[in-house]
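OP here, attaching both records as promised.
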Amino acid sequence: MGSVRNMGTSEDGVPQRLLHPSIISRRGTAPARRVLALIAAAALALPAPPAAAQAGTGPGIIRDAEIEQLMRDYAHPVLRAAGVNTGATRIILVNDRGFNAFVADGRKIFINLGALMEAKTPNEIIGVLAHETGHIAGGHLSNLHQEVARAQIMSIIGMLAGAGALVATARNNRPGSPVGSDAAGQAGLLLGPQELVRRSLLSYVRAQEEAADRAAVKYLTATGQSPKGLLTTLERFQNDSLFRTTSIDPYTISHPLPRERLSNLETAAKASPTFGAVDTPALQTRHDLMRAKLVGFIGNASEVARRYPISDNSMAARYARAVSAYRVGRQAEAIGLIDGLIAAQPGNPYFHELKGQALLEAGRARESIAPLRRAAALAPAGQPIRVMLGHALVASDQTAEAISVLTKASQGDSEDGDAYQFLAMAYDRRNDVPQAQLAAAQGFFLAGQYVEARTQADRAKKQFKEGSPGWLKADDILNYRPPKFD
C-alpha cells in the first residue's frame, strides 16, 4: 500500500516480510513468542487450531504510512483517556480479511485489514480500538498469565486428588462397593479437574471481555465520541454467529455469547451522553480513502469494479482504481490516475508516495525520488515512506544521502529492521564493509534471524576498534540470547 510491505509466514509460523522481490527477512519478536507460549499453556481451554494455522500459513503483517497514521489518530485520544502511554503503544496491521482485533504484549494492538475494509465509519474502528485499550489499561494480558499459572496449579492439585481417589477406588473395589473401578470411571476422576480448570479459565476470559466493553464506553464518552460503533461491531458478530450459538455451551467459549454481550453493551452505550455523536466529515473522508486503498491492493478487479463502479467519480473510487491499475502492472494508466489525484489534492502525502512506489517498482528509481521526497516532507512521521525513499536513493547510487535518510529511519522505529537492509546495501556500495556488516547484523537481529545476525556481527566486530560504537553494537548482538519459552 503506498509503501506497503507485506509479510507471509515461514514454515515455523514466524512472519515473513517482503521488502522487495529480492529481499525477504523473517521477524519473530520475543513478545509474539510469549503470546504463543501463553496460548500453548492455555491449550486445555481451546479447540485445536485450523490446519492452516498448524502448518504455519497464517496471515502476515502490513506496513503502510497512511493507515498507520490514521490508526494513531483514531487511537491516541482513547489511549490518553485511559491513561495509557501513547508513545509505547503500537497498532499493527494484520493481512487477514476477517473482522478481528486483539492485544499482545500489553502494548501492541493488532487489527485485521478485514476490519478496516468492512467498517463503514471511523467510529466502528475507534470502538474496536477502545475495547482493546480496555484490555491494555486493565492489564488483562498480564493477569491472564497469572490466571493460567493459577489454573495449572489447580490442574496439578486436581490430578493429585484424582490419583488419590483412584487409589481409594482400587482398595475399595469389592462386591457391594458403591464406587466402581472401570476404566471410564477412572478416566473421569482424572479428567474432571481438567474440565473444571478449563471452564474456570474461560470464565475469567469472558469477564475480561465484558470489562473491556465497559471500559470502551467510558473512554469513548470521555473523548466525546459515540459508543455506537462498538455496538455495530457486536451486532455484526451476532449476525455472523446467529446460526452457530444455539447449541453452544456458554461455559465453554472464551467470549460472552454475542446476544448477551450485545445486550449488556447496548444498555451501557445508550446511556452515554455522547451516543448520538458522529464522525467529522474530514475523518470520514480519510476513512473512505483508506478503505478504497485496501480494496485496490487486496481485492481483485471484479471487487474493485463492484465496490467502485466506473460511474463513481469520488476521490475514494479514483484512489481504488489507481491502486488497482498500479498493482496489476498497468503502469502508464496508473501514473495518469495518480497524477489526477495529486492535482486534486496536492497536499496529500500518500498520493505522492503511491506515485513514487509505482515508479520505483517500474525500475525508474531516479524519477521516484522527487515524489517520495515530497511525501516524506508532507508526512514526517511516515516511517515506511522514509524507508522507501532510502531504497530509491540506494537504487540511484546516491549513497551518501541514502545513508543519512536510512540512519534516521532506523532510529525512528526500534522494532523495524527494514531500514537496516537498505542501509547495508548503501554501505556496501561505498565499500564500507564493517558498517555494511553491522547494518546487516542489526537488520537480521530485528527480523529474529539470530544466527545470521551473530555471523554478521562477528565479522563486523573484528574490523572495529575495541570499545568503539560499532564494536559495542556488534558485541551486544553477539552476547544476546533469545528467551526460551517452554
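Record two, same layout:
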Amino acid sequence: MNVALIIERIETWRGGAETSTMQFAEHLAADGCRVSILSTSYPPSTPSLNIVPILVNGRMRALRTGLFVKRAQEYVRTNRFDIVHCITPCPFADVYQPRGGTVPETLARNLAMRGSPVRRVLKQLGQRINLKYRVISGFERQLLSRRPWVIAISRYVADQLQRHYRFDPQRVRLIFNGVDPDISTPAERASHRAQLRRQFGMKDTDLMLLCVAHNFRLKGVGPLIRALAWRVERERAGTARAGRASVVVVGRANPAPCTKLAEQLNIRDRVLFTGPTPRVQAFFHAADVLVHDTYYDPCSRVVLEALGSGLPVITTRFNGAAERIVDGREGYVIDSPDDVPALADRIERLADPEHRRACAANAPRAVEGISMRDHARQVLALYEEILRSGQAGRGERG
C-alpha cells in the first residue's frame, strides 16, 4: 500500500505530535506500507521512509502554509497514492488525523489561558484577524465538509469534532494515541534515580515533582509553582507529609517569567529548569510524580509515557490522556488548570509514600493495549477498509 502522510512540520523536538507521527510512520513501514512523508522539514534520513521535502518561501506563516498545502496536493496528484493521510488539514485527503486537536478547540483553550476578561477579549480579537488561524481553519472546514474518515486520538478529540463541526460520528474512528512500552530494567531505573537526584542535590526521600513541557504557559507551570508554594508553607509549618518538595521542569522555553514567580513566592530554591533533554525517560525514573497541569492537550504523549514508566500523574480534564486515569488509582485529574488549591491537594495526597507506590504500580496498566505498534495496525485496518469500500482517491479529485 502506497501512503502519503502530510504534516507541515515534523521536527521531533517540537513535541509529542511530531514524535508520534514519525514513530507511527516507522510502524506502518514495518507492516509493509510504502510511506512518503510530505513536509517542509528535513527529519533525519531513514531507510524505511521516503521523506519528500515540500519547499515553500515567504515571510508570512499563513502564506507558507497555503503554499505547502497546494504543493502537497500537486505532488499527490502526480504520484498517485492509495491513501492520503493528513495531520495538517488538507482538503484533498482521505484520512484526517488532527493530532493537535481541532482548530476551534485550540483557539478556545488558548483564550482560557488569559486570566482576565479584558485579556481574553483582546486575544479573541487577535485570533479573528490572525491570517494563519484563518487559513488553517479554512482548510479544516473545507476538508471536513468533504466527509473524510477522521482518526480521533482520544474521546476528547472526537467530542471536539461533534461540538465544533457537528461532524458525522460514523466517520470518526477512535484510535487512541500510542506509546511504546518502557523496557528499562530495575537496575537502570535505580541508577537514573540516584544519578539525577545526586545531580540536583535531592535525597531519595525528597518529593520530586516533574513537569515536561515546551510551552510553560500552556502546560500550567505557573499554577504548579503556586501549588508548590502552598506545599512549602505547610512544610515550614510542620503540617505537610514528610519529604522536601521541589519541582523540576524539563523543556525548551524561556524560564524567566516562571523564575520571577518563584522568587516572588520565596521558593526559588525549590524550582529547577533543566532545558530540553533526550533523556526524558531517565527523569521519569528519578521523579515521584508527573504534574501536567495543562490548559490543552488532545492526548498528551508525555502523560502516557510517564504512566508507562510507572510514574503517577496529575493532569487536567482538558487532556485526552486523562481518559486513561482513574482518580486515586494511577494519579488524579483536576477540573481546571487554574485551580491551585485542587492541584496542591492532589500533590499532598501523592506525598504519602504508600499511596504513591500503589499509584505507581497501577500506572503501567493504564496504557496497556495502546502501543504505537497497535495504533499503526488499527490505522492500517482503516486504510484497508477505505480501499475495499472504493472511497479513496480524494487527492485525485481535489
